[in-house]
């Protein structure tokens, strides 16, 4: 039976990571195109990994404030199912990217307190999916992938007119609680399933998917 909680494993960089994600029942795999990230992959690396992803698992390119030229190069070379915009892209930019590439767009929105919630409503009018992540600390090098969570009570019981995914500091130890508290049906994880920074761990990936699904009451 397919898992009830759809999991996205982000920041894959090796063929064995793709295998581990598939074995864990991933619904999505993510490739990070952001040079400052320890999970950054080249277009050539991502293209080689993408062709090994089993049919039925969505291949997502994570970009941060990418230009059209950068996106053109990625989309031309890598077979993708979705674009994840994880920077300060405006609502208008989300619309532009959707139109230009004809791919579903997931917009990441950082949440630290209740003042951040209206942005979710605004992006829900333009994006195909929302990714609700912890807001990065000021002066952080990365806008995500910092292993930090936010106060999940802020979004408990809330819904949006498009599908959404919870992210930020998720691990096998807190995935079930995250699902129970927020009602999320999709989880995105990166650093919480790593043996060391940027290196995915197959056992943690399996444990994460199992924990997420144990969270259904
Ligand atoms: O993973 C990265 O290196 C990264 C770089 C730039 C933007 C986003 C990044 N990761 C995304 O951040 C969230 C949360 O990650 P974590 O589980 O807290 O490590 C997730 O969506 C990652 O895809």
From TrEMBL:
Record has Lipid metabolism as a keyword: no
EC number(s) recorded for this UniProt protein: 5.3.1.24
Keywords, comma-separated and alphabetical: Amino-acid biosynthesis, Aromatic amino acid biosynthesis, Isomerase, Tryptophan biosynthesis
Domain of life: Bacteria
Catalysis performed (reactions): N-(5-phospho-beta-D-ribosyl)anthranilate = 1-(2-carboxyphenylamino)-1-deoxy-D-ribulose 5-phosphate
InterPro entries per UniProt: Aldolase_TIM, PRAI_dom, RibuloseP-bd_barrel, TrpF_fam
GO BP, one annotated term: L-tryptophan biosynthetic process
Occurrences of domain N-(5'phosphoribosyl) anthranilate isomerase (PRAI) (ranges): 8-210
Transmembrane annotation, as ranges: none
Record family assignment: Belongs to the TrpF family.
The protein's name in its UniProt record: N-(5'-phosphoribosyl)anthranilate isomerase
Organism: Nereida ignava
Taxonomic lineage: Bacteria, Pseudomonadati, Pseudomonadota, Alphaproteobacteria, Rhodobacterales
Name of the encoding gene: trpF
């Amino acid at each position: 039976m397919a898992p009830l909680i759809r999991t996205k494993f982000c920041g894959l960089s090796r063929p064995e990571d793709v295998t581990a994600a598939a074995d864990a029942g991933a619904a999505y795999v993510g490739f990070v195109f952001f040079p400052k990230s320890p999970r950054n992959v080249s277009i050539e690396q991502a293209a080689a990994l993408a062709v090994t992803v089993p049919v039925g698992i969505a291949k997502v390119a994570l970009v941060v404030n990418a230009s059209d030229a950068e996106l053109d190069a990625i989309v031309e070379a890598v077979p993708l199912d979705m674009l994840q915009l994880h920077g300060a892209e405006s609502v208008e930019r989300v619309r532009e990217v959707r139109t230009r590439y004809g791919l579903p767009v997931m917009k990441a929105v950082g949440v630290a307190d209740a003042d951040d919630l209206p942005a979710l409503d605004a992006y829900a009018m333009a994006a195909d999916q929302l990714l609700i992540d912890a807001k990065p600390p000021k002066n952080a090098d990365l806008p995500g992938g910092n292993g930090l969570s936010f106060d999940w009570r802020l979004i408990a019981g809330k819904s949006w007119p498009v599908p959404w995914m919870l992210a930020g500091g998720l691990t096998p130890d807190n995935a079930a609680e995250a699902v129970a508290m927020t009602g999320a049906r999709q989880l995105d994880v990166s650093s919480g399933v790593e043996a060391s920074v940027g290196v995915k761990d197959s056992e943690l990936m399996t444990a994460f998917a199992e924990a997420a699904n144990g969270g259904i009451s």
